[in-house]
Amino acid sequence: MWEISTETVVAAAHQLRLAPGEGERLHGHNWRIKATVRANELDSRGFVMDFNELGPMLRALVEPYEHAFLNEIAPFDDVNPTAENLARVVFENLSAKLEARVSVVSVEVWENDACAARFSR
Ligand SMILES: [Zn+2]
User: Fold this and answer.
1) Ligand 1 centroid distance, CA of 13 (Å)
2) How far is the CA of 16 from the centre of ligand 1 (A)?
3) How far is the CA of 42 from the centre of ligand 1 (A)?
4) Which residues contact 22 (CB under 8 A, 6 or more apart)?
5) What are phi and psi of 115, to 5 degrees?
6) Distance 31 CA to ligand 1 centre (A)
7) How far is the CA of 8 from the centre of ligand 1 (A)?
8) Which CATH fold would you assign to the domain 2-16+26-120?
9) What are the tens digits of pLDDT across the range 21-75?
10) Cβ within 8 Å of residue 85, ≥6 positions away
11) H or E element: which one contains 60?
């Protein structure tokens, strides 16, 4: 099988809800979001899928987060906007957009150069 990856960066703020009545201070990250997809067969061009298709698709999914406060955007108005949950939401939204031949392997969300969360099934 083949896997390809692409990534994009989004500047967004969040404020984690911790114990009841206790939360983090509002702060931002330049979130680096990397998606990996796979296919068992290549298309007629020899692609898992065109990077020029996958890149804009990932970008469109995360564009609503650009310069936004994640806590105000569904589902993060309800679900804690952790890197873990952001990775899951992007994974699910990207999965819904792909043709049947291609599936999402993982989505990684990096808060900084040292800390990342990765979601896969
Ligand atoms: Zn943070």
Assistant:
1) 8
2) 7
3) 38
4) none
5) -125, 125
6) 9
7) 18
8) Tetrahydropterin Synthase; Chain A (3.30.479)
9) 777 899 999 999 999 999 999 999 999 999 999 999 999 999 999 999 999 999 9
10) 75, 76, 79
11) helix 51-62
